[in-house]
Structure formats: C-alpha cells, structure tokens
Design brief:
Blueprint lengths: L9 H7 L10 H5 L20 E2 L12 E8 L11 E3 L2 E5 L5 E5 L5 E5 L21 E3 L2 E5 L4 E6 L5 E6 L14 E3 L2 E4 L11 E6 L5 E6 L12 H7 L11 E2 L6 E4 L4 E5 L3 E2 L3 H4 L11 E5 L6 E6 L14 E8 L2 E8 L5 E6 L5 E6 L6 E5 L4 E4 L9 E4 L13 E3 L4 E8 L2 E3 L30 E2 L8 E8 L4 E8 L7 E4 L3 E5 L4 E6 L5 E6 L9 E5 L2 E8 L3 H4 L12 E7 L8 E3 L21 H4 L2 H14 L28 H5 L18 H15 L8
Parallel strand pairs: 1-34, 2-41, 27-31
Antiparallel strand pairs: 2-40, 3-4, 4-5, 5-6, 7-8, 8-9, 9-10, 11-12, 12-13, 13-14, 15-18, 16-17, 17-19, 19-20, 21-22, 22-23, 23-24, 25-26, 27-30, 28-29, 29-32, 32-33, 34-35, 35-36, 36-37, 38-39, 39-40
C-alpha cells in the first residue's frame, strides 16, 4: 500500500513530477476534448455532454475480468454526486460540503484537498443533502461552487485559493450543488432554492478575475421595479398575481451544454415556487421561464430561443436534467439536435439551432398528460392533472421519470441511455397555504402542493406500475426503447457508455453493473459496498483503460432511504482489467475511514404523556411541522432511515432532548442545523409529541 502524500511533502512531490498540471485548458482544448483518451476535461466529457468514451480495451468479451484496482477512502460521509475530471493524470472532484479532492488516477493517492469551510448551519437551506456535482477547469485552475453560494477558483497544481466570489444573496436560502461550465474564459454557475422561495438566475464570471460579467434571471421580478431585459418583459406577461413575493422559482441547479459552432449555451431551468401555480399565479399562465430549456449567447447572456417543457408547472417537473447535443440524420437530413429527458416523463428531441420541437415521447409511465401538441409544443393535460377539485394520484411524481442522474449517448449505436424510474404520488390543493419565508415549501404542508383534502374525492391510478427503477436504451429517432432493464432499486446512479459497446452504472445497493449496450444483457455485477449515485468516467493511462466512479450514499432520496448496510465514508473507486502484477485492489488511506455514526434506537419504549395521547390538535400541529421542516431529510416509517436517522426509532426526539438539537444546535457539527428563529419551544414540544406518538403507535383522535 502506498503512503499518503502529506502536505509537508507535497512541494517535493510536485517538483519531481514535472508533468503534473502542465496542460493549460483553453477554448481549443475544451472544443476538442475528445481528442485525447488520457483526459476527461469536463464533467460531461465534452461540450456535447454525451458521457461517451470511445475506449474499447474493456469490452464485451473481457469485462468479466474487470476488477477494483484502487479504493480511495475519503474522510467524508453523505452523498457524493460528482463525476471527476481528469487532467495530466490527476482526478479532480467534489464531495459533501463542497470539499474538493485531487487524486492520482493510477495510484489512488490523494494529492491535495480543499475545504471551503461551508457553515454547517447552511444545511437548513437545502432540499437534497449537502451535495456537489463537480468541478470545471480553465487554464491552470479548478472552479467549483459551494453549498453556501460561493464560486471559487483554485490553483490546479496545489489546491491553493486564487479567488472566491459570493454569487447569492445570503439573506435568502440559495444553495449551489451543480458543477460550473466554462466557455471562452467565462464561468457559468446557477443555484438552487426554489423549494424555499427564491428567484432563479444564473451568472457568468471572468475565469481569471472572478468579476461578474452578466446575470440572467429565469423568472420576472416585481414589474414596478422594471425589467432587466426584453426576455423578462416577455415572461412577465405569462404570470399573474404577486408572484415576486414568493420568489417564483426557476432555479438553474444543474444541467448546461454548449455548441461551439452555433456559439449557443443551453441551460435548463427548474420548478415553480411555490409548486401549485394556483398560489403563485392564481389566474394561470405559462409562467416563463420555469421548466424550460434556454439558448443564450455565452458572452452577452442574450436569449436566442427557449422551449418550455412544462408550462405553468405545478408538479416540480424541472427541466434541469441532463442535456445532450448530437447531430442526427432525420429524414435524410443531418440536424443539430438537443436531447433531454426531464422530470415530466417526456423525451424531447429539439432542433438546437432554433428550439423547434422535432418529437416528444413518453419514456416512463405517465398519466398527467396524454401527449404533446406538435403545433404548440405544449403537453395535453389530463382533466385531473392540476388537482383543482380532487386528490389525484399523478405519474410521474416530484422525483421525476428521470432526475439529475446523467444520461449518456452512444453515437455509434444512436442510443441514449436513461437512468429513470416509474413513480406515482398524490397531489392535492392545500387550502391552508400561506407564504412562509422560513419554511420548506414556502408555506404550510409538504412539498408546496401535496395537501390532500378529505372533503374531495381521491382519484387512484389503478394502471400505475410498481415503483421501480430502470435503465433504458432510448432510440431518439423512433421515440421508443431499444431495450429496458427493470431495477428493484429506485434511485440508481448516472451512466457511462463506451466504445467497447458497454454501459456502466452504479446502483443504490452498491453494485457497479455493466451491460451490453446493444441489448441490455447484464455482463458484470460488482459489489462495492457503498451506494452509488454519480456517473462513472473512463480514461487510458500507459496503455491501460480505467473506469472510475465516485461513490457515497446520500442525496435527496438517500437522506431518508438506505439500500445497503455499508454506509461508511465516501470512496473513489477505480476499475481495470486484471493483470499479473495487479490481481488485488489497492486500498488507499484506510486510516481515513470514517464509520457512519448514526443515532441508536431507543433502548426501551418511550412513555408518552397521557394528556398528549388525546391531544389531537397538538399531534396535528406536530405533524404539519414535521412535513414542513423535517421530512425532506428524515423518515418516520417502519423501516430504517438513510444518511439521516429515522425519527421513528431515534431517542433524540424526547421532550427533554429535542429542544437541545433544534433550538440550541447541539448536533450542528454533524450537519444537523439549528431551527432557532424558525421554531419556538411550543412548536418543538408539538413536534416531539407527534414523533413520540408515532414511536408508540398511538395516534390521538379528536373526541
């Protein structure tokens, strides 16, 4: 086992390794990112974001001999969602709390780490764990966003801070979890926060100085304040009421792509805030530019065209999911296309020169829409879709037919590989909704929209399939799946396609699975011992092909749910074909392993105050508080929790203990934020009563 390079020896190590950090990443390098198999310069492999490696040393005939050659333990736990980039033999990627790691690609040795010291209290501003999806490179620097809203530039060689800029208003619950993209020396970064009531935007910064060059808002502000540009003036016509008081949403928290020939930057936008359009725009309207794909000039931020996937979004159907650019032959004509499978369940094929819809087809089970009107490009909504007078079981739900987990595209086969799922959930209008600046969902109830009404009928979907995951090889020209693999696991990782005619995907229950890309045949299933969310990547060094994936269970779904008993620290896993010299994996930094410290269940039944057992009002108040503040991370079901403990079994919910956690920040160092200023003692008492009642299976009823 090789020794860890300690900081005191880092200068010497860099001096003797003259090739380290020698490449200057510029516009030409990024445009021609596919020219070298020894580099992986952007999170999506190239500007097209196709996550396709032409390497074929690992192929269908020998993939059974793939073995884990490096397992680098990271001193972190919680979700890891980043695909590393590779420059000059070093892998760069991010982990929880926006920490950055530089790791030798061959040995697995950590070269350096950078901790931006994100305040643990900021976890309260996130919907889906303190995750980060990666870094970008330009010149001799590495760039990344932090959970508390900073954009940071580091020296690639040493990890030393060059500059940092605050990109958000710290008085509002903005976060950054997405990877930056860079075009011609401009760094583009968006943010999240729609669930907590913010106005979406993304910005361009000078890569050398950190100076902001322009900012594009995705939804209009208060018309009395004027509009930033013509795009906002046009968008305002599609809103009603006083939406600006509630933020509006439309945050750009993930996907971007770039076409150098057209010089267009493509950006996906998020959901409305609050979810139910009836609350934010009561007289209706498309609410531009929610759930849209935007095409802009990167140097000016001028909008060239847009396509809205879900007009008047009321379901959290974001369009921030992975976009892929390709040139496809359609009706004997090669067209420049953009492909996206957003949450709403349709696979979109657009002409990326002008935004024209070529086709849109359902890739997962859905009932909220019966098709797309090809004249208007808008979905044809089902009668119950907006849950106006019913509680409707709608598919897909807020988890989406496809979420952030990256797709890949094999240009030789012509297939897009979609890591998706079948989902269905009830939506109902929340009559008690009131704007709340501090609560999750900017109001009462869970998820802004789900507030089922007992006085209205419940419409169940008897045709909905069981909730499951799937991997589909999608033919964008026919709008059909060439093959489908049904997966019991629901929340699996992103995918990589290779020239070996293989598709690689990590799973929630800890496997790296490899499929025949032509027919979906499972060729390898390798148990790694840790749930995988991120997409793998591939490269070749000294004539040997490697597959690397960053692993760490967590994220929005993983905070509450678990699919493997081995929740430890994050890991960087590297695979290659077996050789005589290397038959066993290289375990790196074993001493840095951090066992997951979870709460232990209560050792004995908790005695419930007898008065509370009949206090239905207090129980209901506690239930409302739980779903508005806690349910995004914590479960209260009969099973186990995920990264965050299941509060049905936690001893921390007692009346004497819970105030110390929620009001005094007793567990702040472990990432559990204080709710002081959001909850008072009376509310914490009601919350404790609700949780203790659940533990004792005693739900009070009104007399």
């Amino acid at each position: 086992m090789k020794k860890l390079i300690q900081p005191i020896g880092l200068i010497f190590a860099l001096f003797v390794n003259s090739s380290f950090a020698s490449t200057k990443v510029d516009h030409a390098a990024l445009v021609n990112a596919d020219s070298s198999n020894e580099q992986w310069l952007t999170t999506g492999k190239n500007y097209q974001e196709n996550r396709f490696s032409p390497l074929n040393q690992i192929n269908r005939s020998n993939v059974k001999d793939l073995t884990l050659v490096n397992r680098t333990y990271l001193p972190e736990w919680r979700g890891i969602e980043a695909t590393p980039i590779l420059i000059d033999g070093t892998l760069y990627f991010t982990g929880p709390w926006s920490k950055v790691f530089a790791v030798d690609a061959k040995s697995g040795e950590i070269q350096w780490t950078y901790d931006p010291q994100v305040p643990k209290q900021t976890a309260i501003n996130g919907c889906c764990d303190v995750v980060n999806r990666g870094v970008a490179a330009w010149d001799d620097k590495i760039y990344f966003g932090t959970f508390d809203g900073r954009l940071i530039a580091l020296e690639r060689k040493t990890g030393k801070l060059v500059w940092q800029k605050k990109t958000v208003d710290e008085t509002k619950p903005y976060t950054i979890t997405g990877a930056p993209r860079i075009v011609k020396g401009l760094v583009f970064i968006g943010n999240g926060g729609a669930e907590l009531g913010v106005r979406g935007y993304f910005s361009a910064y000078d890569a050398q100085t950190g100076e902001m060059k322009w900012r594009f808002y995705t939804v209009p502000g208060n018309p009395k304040d004027g509009f930033e540009n013509e795009a906002m003036q046009h968008a305002a016509k599609t809103w009603t009421g006083q939406w600006w008081k509630y933020g509006g949403g439309g945050t750009v928290w993930d996907s971007m792509a770039y076409d150098p020939e057209l010089d267009l930057l493509y950006v996906g936008t998020g959901n409305g805030s609050p979810w139910d359009r009836n609350h934010r725009s009561p007289q209706g309207g498309d609410n531009l530019y929610l759930s849209s794909i935007l095409a802009l000039k990167p140097e000016s931020g001028k909008l060239v065209w847009y396509y809205q996937t879900t007009p008047g979004d009321s379901w959290d159907f974001t369009a921030t999911q992975h976009m892929i650019l390709a040139d496809l032959k359609i009706k004997n004509k090669v067209r420049k296309v953009l492909m996206q499978a957003p949450k709403n369940g349709y696979f979109y094929l657009l002409d990326r020169t002008n935004g024209e819809l070529i086709r849109a087809d359902a890739f997962t089970y859905m009932n909220w829409s019966t098709g797309i009107d090809m004249q208007t490009g808008k979905p044809i909504e089902s009668d119950f879709a907006r849950y106006q007078d019913v509680n409707a079981e709608i598919a897909p739900n807020y988890d989406g037919g496809h979420n952030w987990h990256p797709m890949s595209f094999d240009p030789e086969l012509g297939y897009v590989f979609i890591p998706g799922r079948n989902t269905v959930s009830f939506y109902g209008r929340d009559l008690d909704w009131e704007f709340n600046k501090t609560g999750f969902g900017t109001g009462a109830g869970w998820n802004l929209a789900i507030g089922t009404r007992p006085d209205k009928p419940f419409i169940r979907d008897k045709k909905a399939p069981p909730r499951n995951g799937f991997l589909k090889a999608w033919n964008p020209l026919t709008g059909q799946a060439a093959w489908t693999v049904i997966q019991d696991e629901f929340w699996n990782g992103g995918v990589l396609a290779t020239g070996g005619k293989l598709v690689f995907q990590g799973t929630a229950d800890g496997y790296l699975k490899v499929y025949n890309s032509a027919n979906g045949e499972l060729l390898l299933s390798y148990q790694t011992g840790v749930g995988i969310l991120a997409a793998p990547m591939s490269y070749q060094l000294d004539g040997r092909q490697y597959i690397t994936v960053a692993a760490g269970w967590g994220g929005g779904y993983g905070m509450k749910n678990i699919h493997t008993d081995k929740l430890r620290s994050g890991q960087l896993l590297t695979f290659a074909l077996k050789t005589v010299e290397n038959q066993q994996e290289n375990i790196v930094h074993k001493n840095n392993l951090v066992e997951f410290d979870r709460f232990s269940p209560a050792s004995s039944p908790i005695q419930v105050n007898q008065q509370w057992q009949t206090d239905a009002d207090k129980f209901q108040r506690g239930e409302t508080l739980f779903y508005a503040n806690c349910a995004v991370c914590h479960a209260v079901n009969e099973g186990r929790g995920g990264v965050a403990p299941n509060l049905r079994t936690s001893h921390m919910i007692k009346q004497q203990v819970l105030p110390m956690v929620l009001l005094n920040g007793a567990l702040l160092s472990r990432g559990m934020p204080s709710f002081s200023g959001r909850l008072d003692q009376t509310e914490v008492t009601a919350l404790s009563h609700f949780l203790e009642s659940l533990q004792n299976n005693k739900r009070p009823s009104k007399q």
